[in-house]
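We both want to read discrete structure tokens more fluently, so let's practise on a single case. Would you write everything just below, so we can both look at the same thing?
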Amino acid sequence: MEQPSQLSYEQQVQRLNNLGIKMDEDHPERDIQVLASIGYYKLKEFAMPFNKDSNVSIHFENLSFKNLLTRYYQDKNLRIEILHAIESIEVKLRTVFAYTLGNRFGAFGYLKFSNWCDRNKSKFKIEKRQYYFKRDVLKKVRKSRLPDLTYKKNLTDDNFLTVWLVTDALTFGDVLSLLEIMSKNNLQRISHQFDCSPNELLSWLGCLNLVRNVCCHNSDLLDFDFKTKPIIPNTYKSFIYKNQKHYSNKIAVSVFILMQLMKSVNAKYSFLRIEKSFSSVIKHSDHLAQQLGFSDHNAISKIRINS
């Protein structure tokens, strides 16, 4: 099989041009330098929503190199700003999770999953989860530099942390996986702190966990599709694109979920930078707005400060 050959940066720019991306003829050297910094395939990834041919052949329409760069850099800005907002929600989630279990079952009651898990779930699966959870927690404790580890009262004889300390060692995904096996009563106590139902909380946190992972791995956030559609907050349904039957499963959904949850964390949190990034990409185009899951370009203006 013939192997692909290395193309020069000039040839890579020409390849993008041949695929339909309009280059800046007045500044060819600048385009070459930008491509050399970002990479051919990363730029091509951000251009794919403009591909008008089949998956086999590629031809981009109505896309200039300048607008492609805007998509790339604004996606980067979005990832930074959205990750910052998710972190605020994650901090409160950890605090509420620890307080709920600590208040009901004491400092170390969380270690016995049967205390707080849904008893309708398989006992074998719960015990299995408990085993692997404890194993992973001990590994994290050994790597932890928390100053409170020096106090023996914060540890069991087997070196397990109190529930209030262990949450700092858990990832967003770890906490979410524990919520998914929690009893309805305990989950209700936590969802109440976010002013939503247990089903909404699990759906919204699952959505944000995916978005968080995309942000952390520098992937294309603007064009991300949710395979499992999250529950859309009623307050924002009119701002989500909907075809004849179904609401969009694009990035707009996660932004409004983020805004909904933020109301119970910091009601004055500003989403203005996120709004500006979307505005730079959409440029008053309803078509581009709907590609991202918004009802139209005016829906972008709702992403500012929670009311």
User: Anything to note?
Assistant: The first helix runs from residue 9 to 18. The radius of gyration is 23 Å. The mean pLDDT is 93. The CA atoms of residues 83 and 212 lie 6 Å apart.
